[in-house]
Amino acid sequence: MVTALSVLTQLESLSLTFQLESLPHRATRIPPPDMCTLIPALTYLCLQGVPEYMEDLVAQIDTPLLESMVVTLFNQEFLEVSELSKFVCCADRLSLVD
Q: In this structure, are residues 31 and 55 in contact, taking their beta carbons and an 8 Å threshold?
């Protein structure tokens, strides 16, 4: 999906909802590529769903103009959002994190 987003150079707004399904254990999943995909015009990002999918997505994208972001996490027994935390911290234009 990230590869497909890379050709949308004028994409300003993106909303994704990840369905609650069982995921393979992180150790057995294919890791995302080391290179980030630039989405140069994205200013708004809305993510809803299980954190594992969000983690994989934000680890692979760079959004230098991101101004607004909404994240809704579905109930999880164990919450690991280290990539999401890094992504938010690196977004210079985000003014408020709640």
A: no
Cα→Cα distances 66→30, 35, 70, 77, 79, Å: 27, 19, 11, 30, 24
The token pair that represents 60 in the structure block: 């692979």
Residue of 75, 80, 87, 88 whose CA lies nearest to 48: 75
pLDDT in tens, 47-64: 998 887 888 889 899 999
Domains of the chain, residue spans: 2-16+34-90
| Gap between the Cα atoms of 53 and 19, Å rounded | 9
**CA proximity to 40, closest of 16, 12, 59:** 12
pLDDT in tens, 4-46: 888 999 999 999 998 766 555 555 556 666 778 999 999 999 9
Q: Are 59 and 32 in contact (CB under 8 A)?
A: yes
